[in-house]
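quick one, 50 residues, struct below
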Amino acid sequence: MEERTYTIMSRTGGWNIAIGVFTMVLGITAGVLLVISGAKLLQGRSKIMF
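---
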């Protein structure tokens, strides 16, 4: 029984690390894309204003 618990805990820990890394990469990518799109909007602002 203890070996099964140890196996389940190690797999769960591995999955938690993998999901955490994936979430960090996704968050950083989304942040970079938002900064780039915001910069493009600010750059194009002068073309709209009189």
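The radius of gyration is 22 Å.
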